[in-house]
Write a structure and sequence with these properties.
The chain is elongated and about 125 Å long. The two termini are 20 Å apart. The strands form twelve sheets. Strands 1, 7, 10, 13, 14, 15, 19, 22, 23, 25 and 47 form an eleven-stranded mixed β-sheet that branches. A six-stranded mixed β-sheet has the order 35-39-40-38-37-36. It has a five-stranded mixed β-sheet with strand order 26-27-29-31-33, with no helix packed on it. With 907 residues, it is an alpha+beta fold. The protein folds into six domains: 182 residues, Galactose-binding domain-like (Jelly Rolls), CATH 2.60.120; 143 residues, Jelly Rolls (Sandwich); 137 residues, Ribonuclease Inhibitor (Leucine-rich repeat, LRR (right-handed beta-alpha superhelix)), CATH 3.80.10.10; 35 residues; 94 residues, 2-Layer Sandwich (Phosphorylase Kinase, domain 1); 239 residues, Transferase(Phosphotransferase), domain 1, CATH 1.10.510.10. The chain binds 2-acetamido-2-deoxy-beta-D-glucopyranose (8 copies). Pfam families: LRR_8, Malectin_like, PK_Tyr_Ser-Thr. Its EC number is 2.7.11.1. Keywords: ATP-binding, Kinase, Leucine-rich repeat, Membrane, Nucleotide-binding, Phosphoprotein, Receptor, Repeat, Serine/threonine-protein kinase, Signal, Transferase, Transmembrane, Transmembrane helix.
Length: 907
């Protein structure tokens, strides 16, 4: 008893639903289908707390049952049955239940129907019920006041369970109530493990004379029908029986009454005939001794099915309830279960309760997760007004409206999608691309805007594409055009808005080729001149970054002479002005003069200048040991008390920031941009992981990435980053360093600096490279906007073209760009721990490059198939998980396991 009450107390605390009579309803989903809006109430007859159904379904209409069957004429009508939700539209309408215990667990699902002439037609409908993609039951009525109850025990295959009503042309489907109860997943096992669901056939509380059938102390809320035929006696007890021995936990009222035959030697018999000769039945029989069995007496029982023994002889316990079930299904048309006393038993047999189920094969398969996600995303992006509920393709006779599927034994996929005249607005969503087997896509007569995206060409099976009657603009991507010309793709577009070749897009376009040719001529001339100059300079060639003399420390006057008295400014950095210099042998170098104030700031304190100088020397000497292909070579420094300067190799193409905003960027292909990104990432990777101790740059930005004449990128200015000891990577600083637009928000808030702060800044750099925009840009209305906020809205609608620099003219692999943006966005995550390491970034960017190279190589076939997910959709996409069921923990191990035998499932 004590255990019982402790359990109930715990249960009550956990329960979120209303607790009535000490009975918690944790995990119960009780839906009053068709109920008034926003209603939550406790049904006083059952103590069960019901909610309205709108959160579970977005189709159908709510109607009350007709006056004749409703209140007040029919005062005994259970409250949930007073109204129904009916489904005049669509073949298949589904409720979506999200059980709290998640997938892989066993749930009891019960649907209740009472027609009550709700539609005034006085015509009893007939329709089918599905649980997920599998047929569950047909719903038929004998009269308008009959309560038809369907119940199934099912394992959840995913986080959601769909209960679907299918119109089979015999009247409009409707439903009165829908309930879900979490079960113990170790009970109600069959030889098929989790491969079958059980559909309730009968649940009888034998021997009980006075019950309502639904007991508040049945934690699974099963409904037990009292059943005692005239030839049976009833025995009850008020003593204690342990119902917790097994997971079945029959309620007290059920187990504390038992039937026995009126005449001692008779058996207790139950028989039934199945309509379906292939039906497989499972029976669960409950036994507990309710009487005081005397010493010289005994109650020994055996169970027979169709005359054959299906159990050994057993003695019911007077201490606990036991449940026996057949380990192999009963099949055939006629069934006859007989509970008999064994030959050496002095007492008559008893039976406390019995449940009979039929097995439901779960042989229909679902649509692939990728297609489900894609179509759900399309549904929510465009707020598609169709009856699109449950699985898109399954059951296969009733796919979603406008969808045709290809079926196979392991999964289904969407092969045709007709969304013509469906009121779609906005750009063509990226999600279409993920319907990988799509052969036909009809988007005609909608309000679609924007360009015809190139990713449509990734749909390799696409044979028919209709985009007519939209407001699409621009040109048709080359890859689609090619397929249309080859006759592989039937393409319909509005000729007046869209043109087939790029040159006709608008007037300016024709000018472009001329400008390009002019530029080319200028470029060639320039190249020739440069070559000649180079050749002249090659005499006395400079090899490597080290200075010829091995000299690294310079005086101010030497620096002054090298720079020809600071004659030519080539840049302005955060720490000072950069001058062009030239060594005696002609090697060009860049000299960065450090102004004192910035150096003080960089130390975060106002230390005396001699101390600063000393630290500077130490760091400069250390930095001279850092060499990497993607780090601007630091060739020397100056520190003579008067001034401090850093001397770097000269980079002909300046910094990336200037380069991106110059006309040069016109020729910067996606591949070149990827090379620059990879180079920079490798430089950063070396600072973080290749240096001992690791170096945190603290001011990663496009202005600090330099490009040589081969457009190889090198990171500069790391010379001013603090060199951190290896064992103390998180530093608390007192002033935030860095450049606005690049500062890691976490560093900004906490002053804690680590490599992930560089990663954040590098994420901004990556976004600048792909968008061609500055980290902080001006919007049309003059406000300032961060490049992250510029990119986000495009990602939400899956529009990669909006993100990518228009100067690329659409010449890039969409896969590559998506992956790249994914990497960039992961770098700018709010929390440092969620950002990738530089090693990871380098390897991801290399994948982007591979995808782009694949496109360039085979432009028509496009890149290798690599699924890019729409990670940035804000619409709630269900959290599908592809783990399989754990098939061992669900099945009860049945002993006495001969063919068609009963085995006790509790000791
Ligand atoms: C259904 O009945 C309830 C209460 O009897 C009432 O408030 C509600 O307006 C009715 N709904 C309809 C659609 O008639
Ligand atoms: C309706 O059918 C049920 C089940 O057969 C029966 O119990 C009930 O009496 C019937 N009611 C009417 C009004 O005929
Ligand atoms: C149940 O299904 C799994 C795979 O889903 C299969 O491996 C197993 O053999 C099936 N078990 C039975 C009894 O059919
Ligand atoms: C049936 O239950 C009611 C209420 O619990 C009780 O008053 C009545 O005596 C019971 N009748 C029988 C026959 O047990
Ligand atoms: C579920 O049933 C199993 C087997 O009957 C039992 O061992 C386990 O304690 C039960 N779990 C719960 C939460 O009741
Ligand atoms: C069945 O009940 C009747 C009346 O209550 C009683 O006379 C008879 O002995 C009972 N039979 C058995 C086998 O207990
Ligand atoms: C058991 O013993 C009692 C007396 O204690 C006797 O009345 C009864 O008949 C015996 N029953 C059997 C089956 O021997
Ligand atoms: C296209 O856009 C124009 C104005 O932007 C609008 O007037 C027209 O109705 C649109 N056409 C379609 C087919 O939506």
């Amino acid at each position: 008893m004590e255990a019982h009450s402790v359990f109930l107390i715990l249960f009550g605390v956990i329960a979120t639903a209303i607790v009535v009579h000490g009975q918690g309803q944790a995990g119960f989903i009780s839906v009053d289908c068709g109920g008034p809006p926003n209603i939550n109430y406790v049904d006083t007859d059952t103590g069960i707390s019901y909610t309205w159904d709108t959160p579970f379904i977005d189709t159908g209409v709510n109607v009350n049952v007709s006056e004749e069957y409703g209140y007040p004429k029919n005062p005994v009508l259970p409250f949930p049955l007073a109204d129904v939700r009916s489904f005049p539209l669509g073949t298949r309408n589904c409720y979506t239940l999200i059980p709290s215990d998640g997938k892989g667990n066993l749930y009891l699902i019960r649907a209740t129907f009472m027609y009550g002439n709700y539609d005034g037609k006085n015509a009893l409908p007939e329709f089918d019920l599905y649980v997920n993609v599998n047929f569950w039951s047909s719903v038929k009525f004998r009269n308008a006041s009959e309560n038809v109850i369907k119940e199934t025990l099912s394992f959840a295959e995913s986080e959601t369970i769909h209960v679907c009503l299918v119109n089979k042309g015999k009247g409009t489907p409707f439903i009165s109530a829908l309930e879900l109860r979490p079960m113990n997943s170790s009970i109600y096992g069959t030889e098929f493990g989790r491969n079958v669901s059980l559909v309730l056939y009968q649940r009888l509380d034998t021997g009980y004379l006075n019950g309502t059938g639904r007991y508040q102390n049945d934690i699974y809320d099963r409904i037990w029908s009292p059943y005692t035929p005239a030839s049976w006696n009833s025995t009850t007890t008020t003593g204690y029986l342990d119902i917790f021995q097994s997971g079945y936990r029959p309620p007290d009222q059920v187990i504390k009454s038992a039937a026995s035959p009126k005449s001692d030697d008779e058996p207790l018999e139950l028989s039934w005939t199945s309509d379906d000769p292939d039906a497989r039945f499972y029976a669960y029989l409950y036994f507990a001794e309710l009487e005081n069995v005397k010493r010289n007496e005994s109650r020994k029982i055996k169970i027979f099915w169709n005359g054959s023994p299906v159990s050994g002889t057993f003695i019911p316990s007077s201490e606990y309830s036991m449940t026996l079930s057949n380990s192999r299904a009963f099949t055939g048309k006629d069934h006859w279960i007989s509970v008999q006393k064994a030959s050496d038993s002095t007492l008559a047999p008893i039976l406390n309760a019995i449940e009979i189920f039929t097995a439901l094969s779960l042989d229909e398969v679902s649509t692939t997760i990728e297609d489900v996600r894609a179509i759900e995303s399309i549904k929510s992006t465009y707020k598609v007004k169709k009856v699109w509920t449950g699985d898109p393709c399954s059951p296969r006779l009733f796919p979603w409206e406008g969808i045709v599927c290809s079926f196979n034994n392991s999964n289904h996929q969407i092969k045709s999608l007709n969304l013509s005249s469906s009121g779609l607005q906005g750009p063509i969503a990226f999600a279409f691309r993920n319907l990988s087997l799509l052969e036909s896509l009809d988007l005609s007569n909608n309000n679609l805007k924007g360009i015809v995206p190139e990713f449509l060409a990734d749909l390799k099976q696409l044979k028919f594409l209709n985009l007519k009657g939209n407001n699409l603009t621009g040109f048709i991507p080359k890859s689609l055009r090619k397929r249309a010309m080859a006759g592989v793709l039937a393409l319909s577009v509005d000729e007046q808005n869209i043109c087939h070749s790029r040159s006709c897009r608008d007037g300016n376009r024709i000018v472009v080729p001329i400008v390009v040719s002019l530029l080319l001529i200028i470029l060639i001339v320039a190249l020739v001149i440069i070559c000649i100059m180079r050749r002249e300079r090659k005499i006395g060639a400079y090899s490597g970054p080290l200075l010829p003399s091995g000299k690294r420390r310079f005086t101010y006057s030497e620096v002054s002479s090298i720079t020809n008295n600071f004659n030519k400014v080539i840049g302005k950095g955060g720490f000072g002005i950069v001058y062009l210099g030239s060594l005696e042998d002609g090697t060009e170098i860049a000299v960065k003069m450090i102004n004192d104030s910035s150096f003080d700031k960089s130390k975060g304190s106002s230390s005396s200048s001699s101390k600063v100088s000393k630290e500077f020397q130490v760091e400069a000497e250390l930095l001279l040991t850092v060499h990497h292909r993607n780090l601007a070579s630091f060739v020397g420094y100056c520190d003579d008390g008067r001034s401090m300067a850093l001397i770097y190799e000269y980079m002909a193409n300046g910094n990336l920031q200037d380069f991106l905003s110059s006309d040069n960027a016109e020729d910067l292909s996606w591949e070149k941009r990827l090379h620059i990104a990879i180079d920079s990432a490798q430089g950063l990777e070396y600072l973080h992981h290749g240096c001992r101790p690791p170096i945190i740059h603290r001011d990663v930005k496009t202005a600090n990435i330099l490009l040589n004449d081969n457009l190889e990128a090198k990171i500069a200015d790391f010379g001013l980053s603090k060199v951190f000891p290896e064992d103390d990577l998180s530093h608390v600083m007192t002033a935030v360093m860095g450049t606005p637009g690049y500062v890691d928000p976490e560093y900004y808030n906490t002053f804690k600096l680590n490599e992930k702060s560089d990663v954040y800044s590098f994420g901004i750099v990556l976004l600048e490279i792909i968008t061609g925009r500055r980290s902080i840009m001006k919007t049309d209305d003059g406000d300032k906007m961060n490049v992250v906020h510029f990119v986000e809205p495009f990602l939400e609608i899956g529009d990669i073209d909006g993100v990518v620099d228009a100067r690329l003219n659409g010449e890039f692999s969409a896969n590559s760009a998506w992956k790249y943006v994914e990497v960039a966005m992961s770098c700018v995550k709010d929390r440092g721990v969620n950002r990738p390491s530089t090693n990871q970034i380098v390897s991801d960017l290399k994948q982007c490059l591979a995808a782009e190279l694949a496109r360039e190589k085979t432009p028509s076939q496009n890149e290798k198939k690599e699924v890019v997910k729409e990670k940035y959709k804000k619409t709630p996409v269900q959290n599908y998980n592809s783990n399989e069921f754990n098939s061992t923990s669900g099945s009860v191990s049945l002993t006495f396991g001969d063919y068609n035998t009963f085995g006790p499932t509790a000791r």
